[in-house]
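User: structure tokens for this one?
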Amino acid sequence: MSTNTSLQTASKEGQTAERKFNVLFLCTGNSARSIMAEALLQRWGFGRFMAYSAGSHPKGQVHPMALQLLRQNNFKTDVFRSKSWDEFAVTNAPHLDFVFTVCDKTASEICPVWPGQPMTAHWGIEDPDQRAEPEQQRELFRRAFWALDNRIKIFCSLPIDKLDRLALQKRLDEIGRLRPDAA
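Assistant:
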């Protein structure tokens, strides 16, 4: 029997069924890391998760190198847009189960109150959008992508319905402390 019944829902037949978890990835500009995390969770979540991304100060467009890297890894990119976290702090926004910050700047900002009291963790990844030579910048984007890929695969493998809230929070925090180069 699950100790985390708040993360389950009953089906119409009255049986307990795993529901889809809503996950929001936050970054200041919502142009690279959070977008890549959204894409990766949609792929590796196998229907268990609905991924979203947003930024505290969105740049208004997704970084071209992020889009290029996603396309190179067979992601459809026409669905991604840079958007404000305000979209997820309103009454009719999706009920969030998890909110992960992927940049240090956003982690230190005062975030909106998220409906539903989601579990949160900081999964900081170095900003790939730095002033660097094009090949160096491509390498920063690749590192960020693969570090996020590793963390998201670990997150997807968690037995969420079998962990109590405290144990789950511990695991989420551990994922955030993984070295990015351990991917």
